[in-house]
Amino acid sequence: MTSIPLARSAPDLGTVASGAAALRTFFRIAEAWSLTNDQQRQLLGCARSTFFEWKSGRLKRGLDAGTLERLSHVFGIWSALQVLLPVPERANAWIRRANAAPLFGGGTALERMLAGQVSDLFVVRQYLDAQRGGWT
Which residues contact residue 20 at a Cβ distance below 8 angstroms, ignoring those fewer than 6 apart? Predict the structure, then answer.
């Protein structure tokens, strides 16, 4: 029986190639969610000029840890919605629906996500992970 060697370390997520791939994924999610450029920029937490460079596919260096964390939360929110609401239209609309959960106070998940802090993305992701019975 042949054994498969385990990776010695995690892949380097700070490379230009991995950053570009992550941003392409983000922009596809943003399109599915019908986010404006300003909303996308807020979720990424970047300057306007940087945002448009990234959106046009020009990435000069790998993404910093803060941006990678933001992307991780957006991807986690997307993934959890796909599990909870397997009909794409419903999953994509959920972030814009008023929500009575205390976390949202009658507002929408998108409003909470756009509040500007990484922690706002984290709590939405944590909420959805709890709803689907996953680990937080």
Answer: 57, 59
Q: Is residue 7 part of a domain?
A: no
Enclosing domain of residue 62 = 16-131
Tens digits of per-residue pLDDT, 24-69? 999 999 999 999 999 999 999 999 999 999 999 999 999 999 999 9
pLDDT digits (tens, 9 = 90+) for 101-133: 999 999 999 999 999 899 999 999 999 999 988
* Residue count of the chain: 136
Q: What's the number of domains the chain is made of? A: 1
Rounded to whole angstroms, the Cα distance separating 50 from 46 reads 6
In 3-state terms the chain splits into helix, strand, coil percentages (rounded to 5) of: 60, 0, 40
Which run of H or E residues covers position 76? Answer: helix 65-84
